[in-house]
Write a structure and sequence with these properties.
With about 575 residues, the protein is an all-alpha fold. The chain has a domain of about 180 residues. Helices cover about 65% and strands about 0% of the residues. The two termini are about 30 Å apart.
Length: about 575
């Protein structure tokens, strides 16, 4: 993909996303408000049947504690069921022991189960050498739907709590979960999967095929129900690939159209949630301001990746014609790979179409920074919106201290309880990532995973792994061999804290907000417009700089300026 074509591809991607933002956002608002949609005649009876079967009282409103407890319990049950399925897969249909040669050990099975139940889809294995078709279709596809819907439900509950006026409730988790699956994920996935099949993505249960290449060599081609997983992994901001090469594999991403549609699927719903936020809080300008802040950070990051990769390896001062193409598909080129890296690292989706480990130091630094920002740009389903609102609240608090105004958001003051939750939410990530990285660097079991690189690049590989796990993203620097008991256990810790350690404080804050009635304060800081967007961006950058600058200086920055290998 030439540079001009790459720029047009990026522009087309942004244009499609911006066109979809408003209708998707308004549709989501109607779905979770229980208002009528065009799918109601078909899905309404099915929804009521599910409630009768499971004895769910759809009229029940939950306090944040009950909602959070339901969310955590649902994630735990999903993890246990997926773990059992993974351990039993040799006895399930369509398991091919001749080609599935990587054993599903207890620690790998636990890591994979937690990974998919938290939408991290961190993969310490190669799909075509480890997972049978049944485990892929029932286990991984199923968790992509369930975990993605649960995350979306929490995001909606968070907004509902902020918007509530003295109710003390944030909705009903089970109702939000059912509606997220039936009205959002299921119809969009059915349409998307059919488009992928039309474009050549396999959807079969055929055995692996042995073929002879044009050079006369023998090659084994894995097949399977790829289309069923491919669309929901992107739509649900999960990212776990059917194949080890993920979005670079021609069976997962065969054409320019599939590449564009899969990238749009990753960010369309998270971006649309900003409009949903504006609709539910009755402050549409606030929602558009959140989206504007997201786009500014996204565009700066995209430009940074593309510039670094076009400039090439800093150890070649004279440059290399064409830039750094190592680890990239020729059909995507530098700009197509940069776009995918920016989208996937911002949107909690690890389905990259290139190898971040082969990027230049600065080119790899940008996706790392995107994840360190805390999913505030698009992010996962629901989690991205709650993260950027938390950063906005932190910015309001800091500015309020500077100018001597009482910090308020949506007409409600931030008291000591709310500020403590915001600070806790902001510090969980740095504490988790930095502590786990330090442990991995210090103990032999951690450094044993550095099979290719040491020095600054090796540190970046470890930091990237824990950042990706905590951000529930899943992409990794390929130079780190992560399928070991040490990394399987420690990345599990990061994934659990990144999912539940952030969701619970967010719901607690929503619960506090829901008990307060909004009031008009003419002296409050405006929460819309250019100034507030700058506050959001500045707060995010300041938080990352204060917590991660030292380790970044020892990793990608030192590698860029020519530090020891």
């Amino acid at each position: 993909m030439g540079r001009a074509v790459g720029l047009r591809h990026a522009a087309l991607f942004l244009a499609v996303v911006l066109v979809l933002v408003r209708p998707l956002g308004l549709y989501l608002a109607r779905v979770f408000a229980g208002e009528r949609t065009w799918l109601d005649p078909v899905l309404g009876p099915l929804e009521r049947g599910i409630y009768r079967l499971t004895r769910i009282d759809s009229a029940e409103e939950m306090a944040w504690t009950t909602y959070a407890g339901s969310f955590v319990a649902f994630g735990l049950v999903g993890t246990l069921l997926l773990y059992a399925l993974l351990r039993l897969q040799p006895w399930l249909p369509w398991f091919d022991p001749a080609h599935l040669t990587t054993p599903m050990t207890p620690d790998l099975a636990a890591n994979t189960a937690i990974s998919f139940a938290t939408t991290s889809t961190w993969q310490a294995y190669g799909g075509e050498s480890t997972m049978g078709y049944t485990a892929q279709l029932l286990g991984l596809v199923g968790q992509n739907f369930l975990a993605g819907a649960a995350g979306l439900a929490v995001g909606i509950a968070f907004v509902r709590g902020l918007a509530a006026n003295g109710t003390g409730t944030v909705g009903n988790f089970w109702v939000d979960l059912v509606r997220a699956i039936l009205w959002v994920l299921l119809p969009l996935s059915l349409i998307g999967a059919l488009v992928l099949v039309w474009q050549g993505v396999p959807m079969n249960f055929d055995r692996y095929a042995s073929v002879t290449t044009v050079e006369g060599a023998s090659q084994t081609l894995a097949q399977g129900p790829v289309a069923a997983l491919e669309w929901i992994k992107n739509l649900g901001t999960n990212g776990g690939g059917f194949f080890n090469a993920n979005g670079a594999h021609p069976y997962e991403n065969p054409t320019p159209l599939t590449n564009l549609l899969e990238l749009v699927a990753i960010v369309a719903v998270p971006a649309g949630l900003t409009v949903t936020f504006g609709r539910m809080t009755r402050r549409p300008r606030d929602g558009w301001t959140l989206l504007a802040a997201m786009l500014v950070i996204f565009l700066v990051g995209l430009a940074g990746i593309a510039a670094a990769e076009h400039r090439g390896n800093p150890r070649w001062p004279t440059g290399i014609a064409g830039g750094n193409m190592e680890g990239k598909e020729v059909r995507f080129g530098i700009d197509g790979s940069a776009l995918a890296a920016a989208v996937t690292s911002n949107a909690a989706t690890g389905s990259t179409n290139a190898t971040p480990d082969s990027f230049t130091p600065l080119g790899g630094l940008v996706p790392l920074l995107n994840m360190l920002l805390g999913e505030i740009v698009f992010g996962g389903l629901g989690t991205g919106l709650s993260s950027i609102v938390m950063v906005a609240l932190l910015g309001i608090f800091i500015v309020g201290l500077m100018v001597g105004r009482t910090p308020q958001y949506l007409g409600k003051s931030l008291g000591p309880g709310e500020v403590r939750l915001i600070v806790l939410y902001s510090l969980i990530g740095p504490a988790t990532i930095l502590v786990l990285t330090a442990v991995a660097v210090l103990v032999p079991a951690g450094t044993a995973g550095l099979t290719t690189n040491r020095g600054p690049h090796g540190l970046t590989e470890i930091l990237y792994a824990y950042t990706s796990a905590f951000a529930n993203n899943g992409q990794a620097f390929a130079g780190l061999s992560a399928n070991s008991p040490f990394y399987n256990v420690t990345t599990m810790v990061a994934m659990i804290l990144g999912r539940f350690g952030l969701a619970v404080p967010a719901l607690a804050l929503a619960g506090m907000y829901s008990r307060v009635r909004a009031r008009v304060d003419e002296g409050a800081i405006p929460t819309h417009g250019v100034l507030f967007a700058c506050i959001i961006v500045s707060a995010a950058v300041l938080l990352v700089a204060l917590t991660f600058l030292p380790v970044l200086a020892l990793g990608p920055v030192l590698e860029q300026v020519g530090g020891p290998r």
